[in-house]
Recover the amino acids of this structure.
C-alpha cells in the first residue's frame, strides 16, 4: 500500500513541476519550446489520471484516506459569512422565481401586450421596407 502512495506522490510532484514550468515560460519561449512544455504538461496529468483510473478499489480507498486534501471544497466565501454549505445545497429554486437580468421592462410590457396575439406575420423583408417607405 505504501508503494501506491509513493508512486502517486511521485507522479503528482512531476505534474506540479511540469505545470509550473509551462505557466512560468508560457510567454517567454518560442513556439517550438512552448509546444514541448505544453506536451509535457498534458502528458504528466494524463499519467496521473491513468494511474488513478487503474487502481484497484482497496488501493483507491487507501489513497483517498491518506490524501484527503486532493479535491477539497473551497468554502472560504461561505465560512466568512457563517453559511452552512449543507443547508445552501438544499435550497431549491423554481424556474418561475428566476428573473432574466437581460429581459428589459419594455420587453416585459410588450410581451404582456402581445401575449394573446395569434396572428402570423407574412411577407418578406423587402415588403417590410416598402411598407416603411425605405425602398
Amino acid at each position: 500500500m505504501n508503494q501506491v502512495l509513493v508512486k502517486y506522490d511521485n507522479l503528482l510532484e512531476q505534474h506540479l513541476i511540469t505545470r509550473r514550468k509551462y505557466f512560468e515560460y508560457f510567454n517567454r519561449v518560442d513556439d517550438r519550446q512552448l509546444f514541448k512544455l505544453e506536451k509535457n504538461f498534458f502528458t504528466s496529468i494524463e499519467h496521473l489520471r491513468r494511474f488513478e483510473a487503474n487502481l484497484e478499489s482497496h488501493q483507491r480507498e487507501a489513497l483517498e484516506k491518506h490524501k484527503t486534501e486532493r479535491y477539497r471544497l473551497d468554502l472560504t466565501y461561505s465560512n466568512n459569512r457563517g453559511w452552512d454549505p449543507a443547508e445552501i445545497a438544499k435550497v431549491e429554486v423554481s424556474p418561475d422565481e428566476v428573473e432574466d437580468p437581460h429581459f428589459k421592462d419594455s420587453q416585459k410590457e410588450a410581451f404582456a401586450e402581445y401575449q394573446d396575439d395569434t396572428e402570423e406575420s407574412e411577407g418578406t423583408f423587402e415588403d417590410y421596407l416598402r411598407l416603411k417607405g425605405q425602398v
In short: The chain has a mean pLDDT of 86. Helices lie at 2-24, 31-53, 57-66, 76-80, 85-90, 105-113, 125-132. The two ends are 81 Å apart (CA to CA).
